[in-house]
Amino acid sequence: MATPLVEMKDMCISFGGVHAVDHVTVDLFPGEVVGLLGHNGAGKSTLIKILSGAYKADSGQILINGEEAHIHSPRDARSYNIETIYQTLALADNLDAASNLFLGRELTTPFGFVDDDAMEAETRKIMGKLNPNFKKFHAPVKALSGGQRQSVAIARAVYFNAKILIMDEPTAALGVHETQMVAELIEELKKQGLGIFLISHDIHDVFALCDRLAVMKNGQLVGTAKTTDVTDDDVLGMIILGKCPPGATPGPGALVEEEAAS
Amino acid sequence: MSDTALPGSNRPAARNLFAALQLDTRLLGMIGAFVVLCLVFNVFTDGRFLTPRNIFNLTIQTVSVAIMATGMVFVIVTRHIDLSVGSLLATVAAVMAVVQTDLLAHPDVLGLGHPAIWVLALIAGICVGVAIGAFQGWMIGYLGIPAFIVTLGGLLVWRNVAWFITSGQTIGPLNETFTMLGGIGGTMGETASWVFGLLAVGIVLWLQVASRRRRASHGFPVKPVWAELVLGAITTVAILGFVAILNAYHIPQARLKRMFEAVGETMPEGLEVGYGIPYSVVLLILVAVAMTVVARRTRLGRYIFATGGNPDAAELSGINTRFLTVKIFAIMGGLCALAGAVASARLGFSTNDIGTLDELRVIAAAVIGGTALAGGVGTIYGAILGALIMQSLQSGMAMVGVDAPLQNIVVGVVLVVAVLVDIIYRKRTGE
């Protein structure tokens, strides 16, 4: 099999004695969408924040294209072409779309000044592709609708040639039409060979968008499975009980058979 | 949903005018309030408020607080506060005074009245100001102590460090070149002022044309030509009008006579010489321009506003918000040094109580100027206008003869009302 785009091996992180992520191993291949599922507090967001550089793991190894990667900050993650769309969108509400899109990576003039016009031009180009209805280029993003804000966040992630995309609840705040837009975008990005981690609560979403899924419970990995090998009920069982169905590969957090029987 | 900046959309005519000019309505409101204030005082003082002499005085009285207010904008935008600016000003003023009167003026060093003294003293002051500011910023950013506490401590510490530097004495008289930074003791004269004014007009108009060209080259919507012309005309009149007023304040005859006698000439009969632009005002203008460029056109400024709008987002975008805090407070410290130079030069001495309560004036100026304590919002020109409004209010009331306690009551009420009006305005416009 080909080398995975991302391998997170044996990741651990704890906060004040709580094992938020406990020996979790997941991988992601190019052109693949892997859904991460679990209850609130199961550790999915924490796991993904290690990859995006927001948290530093206590132990474990991250491999990008088979080579060990050292990610200590969001800037490091970006240098590996890892982009993240956070659940909270992580936008500076007081700035306009272009400033947010380029935040931390501003285009500058030869004199080192911020080149707002060039950034606006690029923003107009990419928004023209992503969300042609987007017109408010000068308003602070606070004044935008949920869907418009989401498209700014997505534009920020895809503009810089991301290879690995992390989406934390990308459709949670969206209407039907905008959710459809995100789904189409994910299909498009898959075709371009990106690997996508998708965190979601919505099992329906995961089945519609993902190739594989990984379920976490209490910081541990219950198991991973191809979406074609398991049913909705199997996945619910994994999330709620930690019971690994026959179609899935069990992880350290899976309920052991005897325990399940008793 | 249409782009509010797109011209030619179908709006009522009255809004179209402002929409086409793309003026900041908030700024217009402040200027309007300022004009009304001046006119009212002018009526109550029988026309003494809006004389060249009083406008000149108002300008030089505002400089020190206005310089610090531009730095306070950055501090407040990033959701911090700096209560130590008045005390820091005193410490830096004491350092500059001691450096120029004791160290450099010593016969073995440079000697009394050496032309390089003022600049070396100023550099020493700026270094100390930046260092103290950076130290406070480090405690806030890296040690996580709230800015309110760090600078409240600083308020007490630096005021009394200043006392120790000077052993509680008033240090002076300061170097003569140095005191030219203070205001009336150092002005450009009429011709240089006109040149300065014309240069400023030229730069402003050139920037306007360049910006329009740049937008057009990207194919963005631009303002209609008449709107550009109106804006250009307004700025030209404002700049040249300001120069004309400062030039119209003539040096008193007796003083002029002394100036001629000092160089061994006799004054021609009937000679009238205007003061022109004070160097301290030039300094303020340079600071304002530099700070505006930093705020609008540099990464540092962009990160300051992004951090103020959403600290988490800024951090997740790879911005080092801790070091940013150090930089902001270092800038504030450097500006305190400049303000301290102006304030002590204006007095001709460095006193122990210099800059007392300036922290409150500076914060009030920034807040009246539209800087939101919630963070993320504020402008440099707003803060300067805020400082000017505060100063006008105070000296206007003094001229009218309002009792001192009542003056403070009015200033306090105005501060609160100004912020209330701002909150209502923001709610209405949804900004």
Which characteristics define this entry?
heterodimer, A: 262 residues, alpha/beta, Rossmann fold, 2 domains, 7-stranded mixed beta sheet, 4-stranded antiparallel beta sheet, 11 strands, globular, B: 431 residues, mainly alpha, ABC transporter involved in vitamin B12 uptake, BtuC, 17 helices, disordered N terminus
| Superfamily (CATH H level) name of the largest domain in chain A | P-loop containing nucleotide triphosphate hydrolases
| Average pLDDT over all residues of chain A | 85
Which shape of chain A, going by the Cα principal axes? Answer: globular
Quaternary structure state of the chains depicted? heterodimer
Description:
The complex is a heterodimer of chains A (262) and B (431). The model of chain A has no long low-confidence stretch (mean pLDDT 85). Chain A has two domains: 1-81 and 165-262, 3-Layer(aba) Sandwich (Rossmann fold), CATH 3.40.50; 92-160, no CATH class. In chain A, helix 4 packs across helix 5 (146-159). The longest helix of chain A has 16 residues, at 176-191. Chain A is 32% helix and 24% strand. Chain A has helices at 44-51, 74-79, 97-101, 116-130, 146-159, 176-191, 203-209, 232-240, 257-261, and strands at residues 6-15, 18-28, 33-37, 59-64, 67-68, 82-85, 164-168, 195-199, 212-217, 220-226, 249-250. By secondary structure, chain B is mostly helical. Chain B has two domains: 22-186 and 278-429, ABC transporter involved in vitamin B12 uptake, BtuC (Orthogonal Bundle); 200-277, no CATH class. Chain B is 71% helix and 0% strand. The longest helix of chain B has 28 residues, at 190-217. Chain B is globular. The model of chain B is unreliable at 1-14 (pLDDT under 50). The chains are: A alpha/beta (262), B mainly alpha (431). At the A-B interface, helix 2 and helix 4 of A face helix 11, helix 12 and helix 13 of B.
